[in-house]
Specification:
The complex is a heterodimer. Chain A is an alpha/beta fold. Chain A has a single domain, classed as Rossmann fold, CATH 3.40.50.300. Helix content of chain A is 42%, strand content 18%. A six-stranded mixed β-sheet of chain A has the order 2-3-1-4-5-6, with helices on both faces. Chain A is globular and about 60 Å long. Chain B is of the alpha+beta class. Chain B has a single domain, classed as 2-Layer Sandwich (Translation Initiation Factor IF3), CATH 3.30.110. Helices cover 31% and strands 28% of the residues of chain B. In chain B, a hairpin with a 4-residue loop joins β7 and β8. The longest helix of chain B is centred in the middle third of the chain and has 14 residues. Chain B is globular. The two termini of chain B are 15 Å apart. Classes of the chains: A alpha/beta, B alpha+beta. The interface between A and B is medium-sized, with 27 and 28 residues.
Chain lengths: 213, 120
């Protein structure tokens, strides 16, 4: 790293420690199975050497908001941000336990999962109203970005005047349509990524440093 | 006996006289009974957030699975008054809300919502 950038970065860290700036809480929001926990795990592994939660193909694997504190992300220009990452349950307006039975869960397990999922979504909405300073809104680039829940969530985030980055995930899949996401939300930065392969993840970090400073 | 689905159309004036919680309770009470609710003017973002939260609290296995909700994309409110008071917001538009197990959206674009409604 360039000596000037290194010095600038150290000085910036010194100043933020000295003035004890409040850490921003950045929520990862989005519909179920968009890859929110995979992203949260990647961020925390890359910058804190840790993981946040388990991932699964069954929707609503994350049923409680998980917070990983004190993650410092550096940009190439030497700027850094220190944030708490909040991985949230997938937001939806409906949950039917029978959907989980189709994934092989028995009825009792499915009902328990559905009950926990409803509590998780309610909690995620509460966090958004009370405790979140910025949002990475995660979308599956192979799904319809115009789905009502996305339109509604972006509207809610905008009404709270929170900075938001749209992460268009799963670009490694052949049906991924990033341009459709850009046209759905032209007012916000859209970063195409693949969380599982790590593709373009540096671009997302760069945008996070820019948007959440 | 005649089988069918009740549809309630609620005017903007009527909604305008209600508090946020009154609107949300009205919608959820009706939808839980199997009624399709059409609002002449949509809910504010904060009300939508609370509606999602309260819907989650109402879900019960084999009874109520939640809601289906569709609205036209909002329009930016660039009226003279909004600009004068420095509050430019998105104007919410007609909204359809129903029980998730009875109301299915077929297609939506900026000026048309096509939905399919089934009896219980």
């Amino acid at each position: 790293m360039d000596i000037f950038v290194q010095t600038k970065s150290s000085f910036s860290r010194f100043l933020s420690t000295f003035f004890k700036k409040k850490r921003s809480r950045i929520g990862i929001y989005g519909p179920p199975n968009a890859g929110k926990t995979t992203l949260a795990n990647r961020i925390t592994r890359d910058w804190a050497g840790d993981a946040v939660g388990a991932v699964s193909e069954i929707p609503h694997e994350t049923r409680r908001a998980h917070r990983k504190q004190d993650i410092t992300i550096s940009g190439t220009n030497g700027h850094t941000i220190t944030i708490d990452i909040v991985d949230t349950p997938g937001v939806t307006t409906k949950i039917d336990y029978k959907e989980f039975i189709e994934y092989g869960l028995d009825k009792e397990e499915a009902i328990t999962r559905a009950r926990e999922a409803t509590e998780g979504v309610a909690e995620a909405m509460h966090w958004l109203r009370e405790d979140i300073d910025g949002v990475v809104y995660m979308l599956d680039a192979t799904s319809d970005p115009f789905a009502q829940v996305n339109i509604m969530m972006i509207g809610i985030i905008e009404s709270r005047k929170l900075p938001v980055i749209i992460a268009a995930n799963k670009i490694d899949l052949p049906d991924a349509a990033t341009q459709k996401i850009r046209s759905a939300f032209p007012q916000h930065p859209v970063v195409p990524i693949s969380c599982t392969e790590g593709k373009n993840i540096e671009d997302l970090y760069e945008q996070m440093v820019h948007s959440f400073r | 006996m005649l089988q069918g689905v009740q549809i309630d159309l609620i005017s903007q004036d009527s909604l305008g006289n209600m508090t946020s919680m009154e609107k949300i309770h009205l919608i959820l009470d009706k939808v839980r009974q199997g009624t399709i609710v059409i609002l002449e003017k949509g809910l504010e973002p904060d009300e939508q957030s609370k509606l999602i939260e309260m819907t989650m609290n109402e879900i019960l296995p084999d009874d109520f699975n939640g809601i289906e909700m569709e609205t036209y994309p909002s329009r930016d409110d660039n009226s003279f008054l909004s600009r004068l008071i420095g509050r430019q917001s998105a104007a919410t538009r007609l909204t359809v809300i129903g029980p998730a197990n009875q109301l299915k959206m077929i297609k939506k674009d900026k000026d048309q919502i096509s939905a399919w409604i089934s009896t219980r």
